[in-house]
Design brief:
The chain is built from 32 helices and 21 strands. Helix 25 runs antiparallel to helix 29, helix 26 runs antiparallel to helix 31 and helix 27 packs antiparallel against helix 29.
Length: 838
């Protein structure tokens, strides 16, 4: 098929997908925003102004409402765009033959007539006929309910069976082998589509942080309702000489102002923006987040369970050493080649065949005969074999782990001891050791049914080198200082794994638990053993599940890597499942929360660091929102209580809205961009049960908020006392202090430890942060010194007054630098912790 033909067919048949969720309309989005408490209060205030015969004030309120809705919609659009981009990055891919070449395309772009190439780990994306196959076994339990895999055959005569063996079905899983399938049905026309296993538009679960902040907002709203009622009553009694209608309106406006000041409606925005933008930044660093809650969990990871091959090592295998049991290197290498797949997928087999080519044993010689039968590799047996009619005779060529191959070889005790000694010597060099064995049969009738029934002669051992990544030693050291324990899980033998672990500086590299040992352990014994063991060797995927379970039972937060089909359950059960993007199966990628696009351990470490940064910034933003709302709320509460007339109050509803226009972008733009704290990877992992709003965060926010309130309200009140007839000037003074204090607050709170000078240096390099600060300052000058000031019931400030406001604002925030200095000089700041928090 050509690309042009594919485009034409897609026009005809559509995308290869089930009915997708309809996008929410612009009007519906705006309506949902308007239904939030904050906007209902704003609309109520605007309506009251219109009823009072003050259409100008009402119109200004409506303009502000439209402005804030616009900000929310733009943020929502950006977030949705980011999440859709992430979804596209993680979309399933498939290799097809188009224009005569192998091409990788999104599975959604498949059309009838495409020839798709499938292999182990692929989730088949469409229905089609098997054109050719090699050891192709498919798990069709998702459709048929039958747990046993179905061995596929190339296109056969018409069968009366509903589920055909020469046919592959969408939604099923390739568990072994490879094949080429001619696509016949896509999307809803497939058997999978008819059954409707997946429901488009499934409910999206709220993340733990969203649940926490939702509770905080409801709690604040409940308190706001009570205090607003109280303020309304106080206002009513404070103006006894006015008509009852005026007193009622003043009471309602006072109550609305306080309610608006107290509801931290920025929280949902903070979480959505911070998590989605965090995920997008991670994607740029080769770490693709499939589920947003994983971003929250990253900072709490205390144990990293990682595969040795390809994650710790380069996955660039070469044959480095060989030992021929009978002295014939040529026979050993030829048998090794015969035991490999003709078109290998495994990097180890590719290295073996490349070694054969280097020795002058080409594929044409190795695979020129007839392949009579195969013994498939299984995780349990850890060996495989091919039966060839080669050079005029029947040969069984087998390879696998030395421990298993030796069990089916005829050997004397001395020969066995020598082979085991050679195996140990190679393993101690960090080589992956494969045993090769063979037997020549007189007749094809003598071929055993199972590999375990064979009686072979050991030909020798192959030592393959897969060196550790250059950066791995430093990464392990970073994990130690961050209190994260690294556990190596491998199908290789323990001696090889221990040798690699020692090279890269892993702790407890002598603590090895083998798969056989694990089989004998009870759950209690395993829970005890995983506290110190750093290496699990010769494990099968089923063992991974038990290891994760034991670690989680011990209170650890576990991140686990996996790439195989059978790794999916363990990846799902881990707190964070990490799939390999390059060599991982599609099933493992679907089960994981995180996909490592470069299969690199360094990327995992960087991702954990970024996870800590994102959580830190969310906490800073939440603290900032509380801090900045305290002076606004206390001003709205205290001014009526002091008997200040409604027309002279420091904050009217429109001023609260004005401040919200500053707070929203500060949260979602400036604080989200903050870099990681100094020493972020030198502190213990966060306790996952720890609340977002800790006691220390609340104390800090309350202290900062009270000081800003004292400065702003003090400036307003003193100005009002000196000149009772000029409430606009007093109001301008108080508002200017809050707006300027907000600028200082962001810089001071951008780090819990680093001095404000560090934040200012970063500010100098960040155009976006410069932009937000300049817009705030320009906004302040516009509302004070342009004709707008009359509409906003403000008055211009003299240069001296503006200078006083600046000094008060700076003093009300910069005092916290003394606290940060004390933290920096304290010996207990961010202590390295090499143990898990459990």
């Amino acid at each position: 098929m050509t690309t042009e033909q594919a485009k034409a067919l897609q026009q005809q048949y559509g995308k290869n997908e089930l009915a997708s969720q309809k996008k929410e309309s612009f009007v519906k989005k705006a309506f949902h925003i308007l239904c939030e408490p904050m906007f209902l209060l704003l609309l109520a205030a605007a309506i009251i102004y219109f009823v009072l015969g003050e259409p100008l004030d009402g119109a200004i309120m409506l303009v502000f409402v439209i402005g804030i809705i616009s900000i929310d919609i733009i943020q929502g659009w950006k977030t949705e765009k980011t999440l859709n981009a992430l979804k596209d990055l993680s979309a399933p891919q498939i290799i097809v033959i188009r224009d005569g070449e192998e091409t990788q395309i999104p599975s959604a772009d498949l059309v009838p007539g495409d020839l798709m190439l499938i292999h182990e780990g692929i989730k088949i994306p469409a229905d089609g006929v098997v054109i050719r196959c090699s050891d192709l076994c498919v798990d069709e339990s998702s459709l048929t309910g039958e747990a046993e895999g179905v061995w596929k055959i190339a296109k056969a005569e018409k069968s009366d069976d509903y589920w055909r063996k020469d046919y592959c079905y969408a939604g099923t899983l390739v568990i072994q082998g490879s094949g080429a399938v001619l696509v016949e049905k896509i999307g809803g026309a497939t058997e999978f589509g008819k059954i409707g296993t997946h429901v488009a538009g499934a409910t999206v679960e709220r993340t733990p942080l969203q649940k926490q902040t939702g509770s905080i907002v409801k709690f604040c709203a409940a308190i706001a309702a009570g205090l607003s009622l109280l303020v309304g009553v106080v206002t009513w009694f404070n103006i006894p000489g006015h008509p009852w209608a005026d007193r009622l309106v003043a009471s309602i406006l006072s109550g609305i102002t306080l309610a608006m000041a107290m509801i931290p409606e920025e929280f949902p925005v903070i979480l959505t923006v911070f998590l989605s933008m965090g995920a997008w930044r991670l994607a740029k660093k080769q770490s693709l987040v499939r589920r947003l809650p994983a971003v929250e969990t990253l900072g709490a990871v205390s144990v990293l369970c990682v595969d040795k091959t390809g994650t710790i090592t380069l996955n660039q295998m070469t044959v480095q050493d060989t030992w021929a049991a009978n002295g014939s290197q040529e026979h050993l290498n030829e048998t090794m080649g015969l035991a490999c797949e003709t078109d290998p997928y495994d990097p180890m087999e590719k290295a073996m065949l490349a070694h054969c080519e280097e020795l002058g044993i080409p594929k044409t010689h190795l695979f020129g005969g007839e392949l009579l039968t195969e013994y498939a590799f299984t995780n349990e047996q850890k060996m495989m074999g091919h039966v060839w009619f080669h050079d005029g005779e029947v040969i069984i060529a087998a390879k696998g782990s030395p421990e298993r191959i030796l069990t089916i070889c005829k050997m004397t005790d001395e020969e066995r001891a020598l082979a085991e000694s050679q195996n140990r010597m190679m393993s101690e060099q960090g080589l992956r050791v494969i045993a090769v064995a063979s037997v020549h049969l007189n007749d094809a009738q003598d071929i055993p049914a199972n590999i375990t029934d064979c009686s072979l002669t050991l030909d020798g051992l192959i030592g393959l080198a897969d060196p550790p990544r250059d950066s791995i030693k430093n990464d392990i050291a970073v994990c130690k200082s961050a209190g994260i324990r690294v556990v190596m899980i491998t199908g290789d033998n323990g001696i090889t794994a221990a040798s690699i672990a020692k090279q890269i500086g892993m702790e407890n590299h002598d603590g090895i638990i083998t798969g056989d040992m694990l089989e004998q352990m009870t759950d209690d014994e395993l829970r005890q053993s995983v506290q110190t063991a750093s290496i699990f060797s010769r494990v099968i995927p089923a063992h991974k599940m038990r290891i994760v379970q034991a670690l989680k039972d011990n209170g650890e937060v576990v991140a686990m890597t996996g790439d195989g089909v059978n790794d999916a359950p363990a990846l799902k059960y881990a707190d964070i499942g990490i799939a390999m993007g390059k060599r991982g199966s599609e099933v493992s990628r679907e089960a994981a929360e995180l996909i490592l696009m470069d299969d690199n351990f360094s990327t995992i470490v960087d991702t954990v660091k970024d996870g800590r940064r994102i959580y830190d910034n969310i906490r800073k933003a939440v603290g900032y929102v509380f801090t900045i709302h305290i002076p606004i709320a206390l001003t709205s509460l205290l001014a009526p209580a002091l008997g200040i007339p409604p027309g002279s109050l420091m904050l009217l509803p429109l001023h609260v809205v004005l401040l919200e226009l500053i707070v929203d972008p500060t949260c979602s733009i400036v604080l989200e961009r903050q870099p990681a704290e100094t020493g972020i990877m030198k502190r213990r992992p966060r306790n996952p049960k720890e609340k977002l709003l800790t006691v220390s965060t609340v104390i800090k926010s309350v202290a900062q908020g009270l000081v800003i309130f004292a400065a702003s309200f003090g400036a307003y009140y003193l100005s009002l006392q000196q000149n009772p007839g000029n409430a606009a000037a007093a109001r301008s003074m108080g508002l200017a202090v809050i707006m300027l204090a907000n600028l200082f607050l962001v810089q001071v709170n951008s780090s819990d430890i680093d001095p404000v000078s560090t934040s200012i240096k970063r500010l100098a390099k960040d155009k976006v942060m410069w932009g937000v600060n300049i817009v705030t300052l320009v906004g302040l000058f516009v509302i004070l010194y342009s004709p707008l000031n009359d509409f906003l019931r403000l008055a211009p400030l003299a240069a001296g007054q503006l200078l006083i406001a600046l000094v008060l604002a700076a003093s009300s925030v910069l005092w916290y630098e003394i606290v940060k200095w004390a933290k920096r000089t304290s010996p207990d700041v961010a202590p390295p912790n090499h143990k898990s928090p459990a």
